[in-house]
Amino acid sequence: MKDGIFVFDAAVHCQDFSDGQIKDGSDGRRVRILREQLTGFINLTGRRGPPPEPETFSNPDLDWAMDMLFGKSDTDMACACSVPLFSHWRAGLGPVELSHALAQKDPKRIVLTGGVDPAYHGLGPALKEMERQVHELGAVSFKFYQYQSRGCSWRADDRDIAYPLWEKALELGVKMVQFHKGFPLELGPVEAFKPNDIQYAAADFPELNFGIHHLGDPYVDETISIASRFENIFLILPLWFNQYYLQPWKMLERLGEALLYVGSERICYGSEAFIWPHVQTYIDTLANLKMPEELQDRYGYPEITREMKENILGKAFARGMGIDLDAKKRELGLTP
Question: What is the pTM of this model?
Fold first, then answer.
C-alpha cells in the first residue's frame, strides 16, 4: 500500500518484441517497425522520466517482474493483460499463456485478462477460447485490439460479431471487458482505434463494464465525452504516467478534464509495465500529484484530493472488475 492507499495496477504486460516472434512466411517488417516505434517513444519519454530497461523488448523474467511489482513498489494487486495481436506475431504480441504464467506466480495478487479476436479467428473459435481462458486459465476479464491487418478488423457495436462476445462475457461472470483505443501500433490506421464504437455497446449492455485504455489518445476529447455519459465506461491510464514526465502540463489538462467530466470513481491507474518497468515512480507521482491552481482557475479542474487518489490507485478498477476490495485486503493481510 502507498500511505495507506490500496494500489491496483490495471495494466501490466508480458510481451515479446523479439525476432523470434516473427510469423513463419513473414518478412518480419511489421514486427521490427513496432519495436522501432516503441524504442523511439520510450527514449522520448525517458528524456525527462525513468530510463528504459533491457527487459523491455523480451518476455520478462518472471522473478524480475515480480520484484519490480511487489518487491520494489507499493503495488498490492496487478492485472496481467494479454495482447491479442496475431497477424504478424507467432503467438500473439502478448500471449495469454505468458500473462497466465505471471499470474500464477501469485494468484491472490495478480488477476488475468485474456484476449481473443473474432475477426481473425472467427466468432465461434473466439467464443470457445473465451470459455477456455476463463475455465482453464482463470481469466476474469478480456482485452481487445480490434485491428489485425487491412480487411481484418471489427467494431464493439457490431451486433453480429461483437455482441455475442459481450453475452458470453456475462455468461462467464466477467464484469469488465477492455479495449486498446488510440495509440495505433506499427502501421495500423489510427482511425481503427477510435472509441466511438463503445457507445452503443455500453448502452446495450449496461450490466457490463467497458474499460478504455490510453484515454484513446489522440481521441482524448471524444473518449472523455463518451465516458462522461455512460456510467459503465472506465478510463484506464497507461501511457498517461509515462508521458507525464515529458509533458506534465498537457497530461494534467487531460487528467483534469477526466476528473471534471467523468470523476475519479471511473479513472484507473495502470503502469504499462514491463515496457516501462519503474512502477514505484508512477505510484509516487500519483500519490504526490497536485492540480496547479492556474489550471483550476483557468479550466475549473478540481483539486486532487486523497479520496480521488484512492479511487484512481485502486478502488475504481476493483469496482469495475467486481472485486470486493475489503475482502481482498483481509485476504492479503492488509487490514489491522
Answer: 0.95
